[in-house]
Amino acid sequence: MSRLDTIAERLDSAAAKASAVAQLSTGADAITLDEAYEIQARSIARRLLRGEALVGIKMGFTSRAKMVQMGVADLIWGRLTDAMMLEDGGEASMEDYVHPRIEPEIAFRLSRPLSGNVSLPEAISAVDAVAPAMELIDSRYRDFKFSLEDVVADNCSSSGFVIGAWSKPPADIANLGMVMRFDGRPVEIGSSAGILGNPWRSLVAAARLAGRYGFQLAPGQIVLAGAATAAQPLKAGLHVALETEGLGRVDLKVK
Ligand code: OOG
Ligand code: MG
């Protein structure tokens, strides 16, 4: 097996078994960013071979809050599969994750293909619906610590996501209030403006960055725009809810 395949297998198996591994960057496995995206592609290919289907991509570090929380300042993207999808109002089990966190996001659903350098109006016209969403991230690295290359290889900590009801894109989504609550208590309060000043910009970046690595966004696929605020650690028994102005709410229970 090649070096990149070996790392891809290690990260895929860490995700499948919910067991943490050492960072690549601090050990003998330092990689370049291009190699990191190749490892990500190969580790997700293993999931597809097991029968999972690709349903879209996620953007990461589109907000200052996240860059500051994680100490990484470049936009990243990862792949989403159907097995990561959690039901709105459904349950996530702590047993399936190493040290899960949750963060408030916005989801786009595409009705047209999108790839490469697209304008803001082109990106907007490729979307038929927008929804409130939460991403469940779970780094496979010990202590949730990583470099840019480490996190990209680990599919950008992507582990789960829950999407609320889809609606026709509102005329303006640049400054929607977002409140994430744990058992009714607000734990993160923000605005969609936290996402690159306007979440539509995240979609433009998604088309460009994924396109650079040969990934074409297809009709029916989903793009998670990235968290508007920092992420919060989950624990068993919590009821998590996100309310987004104009888009409604999305819920998840943790057991
Ligand atoms: C990396 C993923 C970042 C976001 O929304 O900014 C991300 C991480 O924080 O573990 O998903
Ligand atoms: Mg995220």
TrEMBL record:
Record flagged with keyword Lyase: yes
Gene3D superfamilies: Fumarylacetoacetase-like, C-terminal domain
Superkingdom as given in the UniProt entry: Bacteria
Keyword Iron carried by entry: no
Pfam families: FAA_hydrolase
Signal peptide bounds: none
Ranges for domain Fumarylacetoacetase-like C-terminal: 99-254
Record-level Gene Ontology MF annotations: 2-oxopent-4-enoate hydratase activity; hydrolase activity
Protein name per its UniProtKB record: Fumarylacetoacetate hydrolase family protein
